[in-house]
Amino acid sequence: MVASCEHWDMLSRKWRQRKLVQKVGLYILDNLHLLDATYEVVASRIRFMQSEVERKIRVVALSSSLANAKDVANWLGVSFPANCFNFHPSVRPNPLEIHIQGFDNNNRAVRIIGMHRPAYNALKKAIPTGGESQGIVFVADRKQARLSALDFVTMVSAEASAADKQRFLGAASSSHEYQSSIEKMIKEPILKQTLLSGVAYMHDGMSD
Fold it and tell me: What are the residue ranges spanned by the domains of the chain?
């Protein structure tokens, strides 16, 4: 069976009355780096079930790079390092560097806005002026996608040099074809505005 965390949470809540749930002997927890409250409940319930049923349950957890792999392994009851394989980001096909920056503001809206400047600075570092590199920033929701894009456009327009103002625009973006394509294909006014500065955003509420 393949199920999302939400579906398996509903199915396994009454696991004592559901024999099929009790018979599951192998759980593959994918995308463990997306651990949230529901995912935590599901994983904790699996561990509890393992302590209650007479047979062992095997758990295989898969994740992208984690900074706290040892802590997650201990929480899942996995012996470290014997049964935990933590591959260094440098062995990925596309090398990855992990940097963690904390924000101590308790107000969610203020905290997220405070993340824009550090995110923009990281993009500047990753995308050289005049280059053809690209970057992607993941945010919490649809509204934040628009706000972040607008903030990035504001920051790039405030740059001192003309080259920096064009940082996110490739060579083709100055062509008439690029600008006419935006006018023809893009219906959302804010997205049209950000695309002209080389910044786009996408969420599941947008049209094709």
Answer: 5-88, 108-195
118-140 pLDDT tens trace = 999 888 888 776 556 788 888 88
In tens, the pLDDT along 50-99 reads: 888 877 889 999 988 777 888 888 988 888 888 988 777 778 787 777 77
The set of residues, in sequence order, having a beta carbon less than 8 Å from that of 173 and lying 6+ positions away, is 198
Choosing among 3.40.50.300, 3.30.450.40, 3.30.70.2750, 3.40.50.2020, the CATH entry for 5-88 is 3.40.50.300
Kindly report the CA angle at 113 between 144 and 192, in degrees rounded to 5? 45
Burial class (CB in 10 A: 0-12, 13-18, 19+), 173: middle
- Unique residue bearing structure tokens 């405030």: 158
CA atoms within 13 A on the CB side of 140: 11
Cβ atoms of 48 and 55 within 8 Å: the answer is no
